[in-house]
Amino acid sequence: MRLAITGGTGFVGSHLVDAALAAGHDVLALTRREQPPRDGITWVPGDLKDRSALERLVDDADAVIHVAGVISGRGADAFEQGNVEGTLTMLAAATAGGVRRFVDVSSLAAREPKLSLYGGSKAKAEELVHGSGLDWAIVRPPAVYGPGDKETLELFRMAKLGMMLMPPKGRVSVIHVDDLARLLLALAAPDAPSRTLIEPDDGKPGGWTHREFARALGAAVGTRPAIVSSPGILLRLAARADQLFRRDRAKLTIDRAAYFSHRNWVVEPKRGAPPELWQPKIPTQQGLAETANWYRAKGWL
Known about the structure:
Layout lengths: L1 E5 L4 H12 L3 E6 L9 E5 L5 H7 L5 E4 L9 H21 L4 E5 L11 H14 L4 E5 L3 E3 L7 H9 L1 E4 L4 E2 L1 E3 H12 L7 E3 L9 E2 H12 L4 E4 L2 H15 L7 H7 L3 E2 L18 H15 L3
Parallel strand pairs: 1-2, 1-4, 2-3, 4-5, 5-6, 6-11, 7-10, 8-13, 9-14
Antiparallel strand pairs: 9-12
C-alpha cells in the first residue's frame, strides 16, 4: 500500500513507519523538521495547519493513518488545536484527495470525556471521524509502552529506585507499541473492517491492577519496589510540583493526574479486534524487560 502517516516522528508513529517499511509499503510521512533520507519513505515538510503539505501527503495514497496528537498541554486550546482541529484538517485533506480509508489513533481516555481535557478532545475528534463519510476505523489504545517511550520511562525510573508512587486502586490495560503498529497497518488494508472502533490490549483478561503492573515493572528492572497507592489529591499536588520545577517539560500535569486517578482503564472485550485481523504477540513481562534493556542501552535508565 501507499500510506500517508501523521505523527511519524513520534513514539507510536516511528514504530508504525518501521513496521510499514518492513512490510514493503510505501510511506509518505508529515514532518516539521528535516529528516535523514530513508528508502521507502517520502518525508513531507509541514504540519497539520499547512494545507499544501497535507495535499502532498495524501497524494495518491491508499490510506491515511492519523497518529499525530497532543498528549500533554497547558490548557484547553492546546488539546483543541492538536487533537480536534488537527483531525478535522486531516479528514478534509483525505476527502479532498480522494482517500477513502482513514485510520484514527484515539485513546481510551475518550471513554471519559469529562474527566480530562485530553479525553474530551479525543472524544470530539472521534465524533468528527464518525461524521466524515469516509471508510474509517478508530483505535483507542490503552497505556502504550516500548522502546523510545518517554512517558512510561518515569515509571521505569521509579521502579529502579525501589519506590513506586502509583494511582489509587484500580486496573489498567497496556499494549506494546509494536503490537499497536501491526494493528494500525492491518486496519489500513482495503479489506479491513469498516466503520469500526477497536480497543486493543496485550490480551490479559481484566487488565492489570496498579500493584500488579508496578511489580511487573520492578521485575523488568531487577528490583522489588515498595508500592505506594497515592490518593488523587496527592497526584494533583505532585502534578503542581512537577509543573513548577519542570514547567513545559513536566510529565505529570494536573490534567493527566485527573485521568490517572480513574479506577478503570481496562479495554472493553466486546470492542476487541477480530482475531482473524489481529492478535497481540508480545507478552507484557517480556516487552517490559526488552524496553528496560533498550533504556539502559541508550543511557536513559
